[in-house]
């Protein structure tokens, strides 16, 4: 697997075991060598038997309720992903519950206030 040619690898709605042992080794080397990763939607519902990947994505998916509207609080406006967002952002989505979260240091960009969930 030659990942060096790519700036980033995107897992788009992946679920379950998607990489074999050889692919896992190549992907881990790619990330450790400075390669980028974007996990979209169900990336935390992937590769449950691979602890390194769990630390990369930061959590393991448990469940989610029906879509709900929520008020999100942007806590870091310095990141490129959040600098354009308002301090309080209203959004309807599928808010995940997690059964495990990494002990590794993570940078929180946005928090959800679960007391401000509502349906529309």
Q: What is the gist of this entry?
A:
The chain has 120 residues and is an alpha+beta fold. It has two domains: 1-57, no CATH class; 61-120, no CATH class. It contains two helices and seven strands; from the N terminus they run βαβαβββββ.
What key phrases describe this protein's structure?
three-stranded antiparallel β-sheet; 2 helices; two-stranded parallel sheet; 2 domains
Question: Secondary structure elements and their pairing?
Answer:
Blueprint: E1 8-12, H1 21-32, E2 36-40, H2 51-57, E3 59-63, E4 68-74, E5 88-93, E6 97-101, E7 110-118
Parallel strand pairs: 1-2
Antiparallel strand pairs: 3-6, 4-5, 4-7
Helix content percent band: 10-25%
Task: Find the structural class using helix and strand composition.
Answer: alpha+beta
Query: Overall 3D geometry?
Result: globular
Overall radius of gyration: 16 Å
Structural domain tally: 2
- Tell me the series of helices and strands, N- to C-terminal: EHEHEEEEE
Indicate the multimeric state.
single chain
Chain-averaged pLDDT: 92
For the largest sheet, list the strands in their spatial order.
5-4-7
- Beta-strand content: 35-45%
Biggest sheet: strands, sense, closure?
A: 3 strands, antiparallel
Tally the helices: 2
Low-confidence stretches: none
Secondary structure tally: strands: 7
End-to-end distance, in Å? 46 Å
């Amino acid at each position: 697997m030659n990942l060096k040619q790519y700036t980033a690898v995107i897992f788009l709605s992946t679920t379950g075991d998607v990489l074999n042992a050889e692919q896992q080794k190549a992907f881990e080397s790619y990330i450790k060598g400075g390669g980028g990763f974007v996990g979209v939607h169900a990336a935390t519902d992937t590769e449950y038997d691979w602890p390194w990947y769990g630390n990369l994505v930061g959590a393991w998916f448990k469940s989610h309720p029906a879509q709900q509207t929520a008020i999100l609080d942007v806590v870091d406006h310095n990141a490129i992903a959040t600098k354009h967002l308002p301090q309080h952002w209203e959004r309807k989505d599928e808010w995940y519950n997690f059964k495990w979260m990494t002990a590794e240091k993570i940078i929180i960009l946005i928090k959800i206030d679960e007391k401000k969930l509502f349906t529309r």
